[in-house]
Amino acid sequence: MAHDTTRGDTVLVLGATGGIGGEVARQLRDAGWEVRALKRDAQEGKREGITWLAGDAMDAQAVRRAAKGCSVIVHAVNPPGYRNWSELVLPMLDNTIAAAKAEGATVVLPGTVYNFGPDAFPLLAEDSPQRPLTRKGAIRVEMERRLEEASRQGARVLIVRAGDFFGPKAGNNWFSQGLVKAGQPVRSVSYPGSAGVGHQWSYLPDVARTMVELLARRDRLDAFARFHMAGHWDADGTRMSDAIRKVVARRIGTRVGVSAFPWWLLTLASPLVVTFREMREMRYLWRTPVGMDNAKLVAFLGREPHTPLEEAVEASLEGMGCLATAPVAAVA
């Protein structure tokens, strides 16, 4: 859908090298937006139709300068490797909020299900109570509280909440770090969920498309707007694994099995590896079905952008380098 570029829409994307940030940056660019991206070690200049600016999301002045004249700020930034996540996340958000208030801009935040506890499961609506179980969830609730406050002080806010991400670019997600290994041929699928337990997945390009379409209509949004995506619902934990197996069989003629994810290994390595600790903290979401009600989104947009699962899985495995046939070792 083409965007009306006569409005001089300029967007700043924080986290443009990450999965969702990169996808939103590319899709906004393709929809005719002027896209700026902030990156710690950027060589300033325009590449791939995006203006890259050197700066850190932890530096309030850098964010403020980069956001000058922007009508939208996409806040998709995470500390590298999730190191010091709890200490850095809120200061980063405060810098975005300050810039958005100064510009009267809309902050776009990719939301998570960590905000909710068992009392809100199994189907989450936008107004479900947010009583999280984890430290990470509590920080996520505080992020949304600060954004809601900012929406009463000159900024505008759009939160799009989706399930576990997967997409053509590897990132910090279960698909590329748990089920398969980015950059390696698929030899088996390692599934983290309990047998028979439903799980929700979201294809990154669909999430980005949803954000782009909502932003195109942002004059009709509330100052603080939240939308849930239904994404791809895997009712018993076999649908995603089966889609991976089908794609691998069709593309490289290999039959792959499914094994249980080695949670014990995460437990063992957690004291040493921050990412493993973060993954382990989310285990409860694999032991209970958690889905999202997208009725509000469908009422507003008319539909939810949705790529068929097998097509989405194929594009993801392809983009992550998992469909190249393994090189044959030469005999010495």
Automatic annotation (TrEMBL):
<dbReference type="GO" id="GO:0004029">
    <property type="term" value="F:aldehyde dehydrogenase (NAD+) activity"/>
</dbReference>
<protein>
    <submittedName>
        <fullName>NAD-dependent epimerase/dehydratase family protein</fullName>
    </submittedName>
</protein>
<dbReference type="InterPro" id="IPR001509">
    <property type="entry name" value="Epimerase_deHydtase"/>
</dbReference>
<dbReference type="InterPro" id="IPR051783">
    <property type="entry name" value="NAD(P)-dependent_oxidoreduct"/>
</dbReference>
<dbReference type="Pfam" id="PF01370">
    <property type="entry name" value="Epimerase"/>
</dbReference>
<dbReference type="GO" id="GO:0005737">
    <property type="term" value="C:cytoplasm"/>
</dbReference>
<feature type="domain" description="NAD-dependent epimerase/dehydratase">
    <location>
        <begin position="11"/>
        <end position="222"/>
    </location>
</feature>
<dbReference type="InterPro" id="IPR036291">
    <property type="entry name" value="NAD(P)-bd_dom_sf"/>
</dbReference>
